[in-house]
Specification:
- Helix content is 13%, strand content 33%.
- It is built from 7 helices and 23 strands.
């Protein structure tokens, strides 16, 4: 591709057709299709060759202008021209087991890959952007492209003029699910370059969201369903086209604190589990509209919580199914979780509160945000907290018929 970047052809289609023999692929010659021919040959290469360096191109421009300054630019993951491979000399295929390239295919949902993405936690930012390793430059230094989640396990290219070095600060994402890279941007009713901005891509893919706001001491270990969780914006989302009501979500949070106890520095760690549903409905400001949620000490309910999370992976559950599971496994509704550390003579209480937010960069509609906080207590100073009752009445469930059990 780097060789082709310096070539000139009389017809745009010939830029693609001259590469058929080099890559050993076949496809019909359709003069008149223009740049579409170059997209088609990339798809044929992907079908034949397990090599993600096909994504290691760079565009000339990364931002578009507006009255408020430059905006992020997005694109499909396929290059629009061979010229975008001009600076790719010296790139080599990924070969190590950690960067293994598995099966890939072209589908009507996008280019399906079976690869784990990289994430990098930045203490200055709330979320973690996605990076897909695509090639090596040199012997052991890998490069990746930035991705932006635009639907359930669907991604577009973010900042297409940039390839990032992947250093030790990046971690693997927690799931190995199939992911779909869009060859072209999703369709939009708007015209022109404005349709490429962050706001348009995000707004058209999210009907409702639930955002998690975490202090620096808490990080997400697992989020279910992971296909509908965006690590960059820290949100669970429901696509606009999906029926509402199937909004059960959970997150396992890893806590790590350095506390001062009796003038000594003590490090403690813990796992807490957060479960929420009922956040996809519009709010009238009444207390009954607040999403139902619980936060628990994970180790006290690990078997039941693992089963509940696995149900979210298998299929979407409506609110009645969620309530049935929670009550069957006797999961309490708690706004706080208590973690005791007898050796350190200290306790930590993690709390969650729900608040309404409006941010068009996240969602076109108002949404709920779960704000997490923690506080240290001495061994005998834990504030009183009692489990609450799950509100089944708002979903039309008459619990009186269940009382006999």
């Amino acid at each position: 591709m780097c060789w082709a970047a310096g070539r000139e052809t009389t017809r745009a289609e010939d830029m693609a057709y001259c590469l058929l023999g080099i890559f050993g692929v076949n496809m019909p010659l359709l003069y008149g299709e223009g740049q579409e021919a170059f997209r088609r040959i990339q798809e044929e290469i992907i079908r034949k060759t397990p090599d993600y360096s096909i994504f290691a191109w760079a565009s000339l421009n990364n931002t578009i202008g507006s009255k408020r300054g430059p905006k992020r630019l997005f694109s499909g993951v396929l290059a629009s021209s061979a010229k975008q491979f001009y600076n790719c000399r010296g790139y080599t295929i990924l070969t190590t087991s950690s960067n293994r390239v598995d099966e890939s295919s072209v589908t009507n949902q996008g280019i399906k890959i079976q690869a784990r993405l990289r994430l990098k936690h930045d203490p200055r930012k709330k979320g973690t952007p996605y990076l897909l390793p695509v090639c090596y430059q040199g012997k052991d230094r890998s490069l990746g492209i930035r991705l932006r989640k635009c639907g359930p396990n669907q991604f577009v290219r973010d900042s297409p003029s940039i390839l990032d070095w992947i250093d030790q600060g990046y971690i693997w994402d927690s799931t190995a699910e199939d992911k779909y890279l869009l060859a072209q941007l999703p369709s939009s009713p708007s015209e022109g370059t404005e349709r490429l901005t962050n706001q348009m891509i995000v707004q058209q893919s999210r009907g409702r969201v639930l955002q998690l706001h975490l202090p620096t001491a808490l990080t997400i270990s697992f989020a279910h369903p992971s296909s509908r969780f965006d690590d960059e914006d820290m949100v669970f989302f429901l696509p606009k086209r999906e029926d509402r009501g199937c909004d059960g979500v959970s997150a396992t949070l890893n806590g790590r604190l350095k506390l001062t106890v009796n003038r000594k520095c003590v490090e403690v760690s813990f796992l807490c589990f957060f479960y929420a549903f009922g956040w996809d409905q519009a709010s009238s400001g009444e207390p009954s509209d607040v999403p139902q949620y619980t936060i628990l000490n994970y180790r006290r309910h690990d078997a039941a919580l693992n089963h509940i999370s696995s149900q979210l992976v298998k299929h979407d559950q409506n609110s009645l199914e969620v309530l049935d599971n929670l009550q069957y496994y006797k999961i309490p509704k708690c706004p706080t979780a208590v973690f005791r550390f007898p050796k350190s003579k200290v306790n930590v209480v993690v709390s969650v509160t729900m608040e309404r937010r409006k941010d068009t960069n996240i969602c076109s509609e108002e949404f709920w945000r779960a704000r997490f906080s923690w506080k240290k207590y001495d061994q005998n100073e834990i504030p009183p907290s009692r489990p609450e009752s799950w509100d089944a009445a708002r979903y039309g469930w008459d619990e009186t018929s269940e009382s006999a059990e």
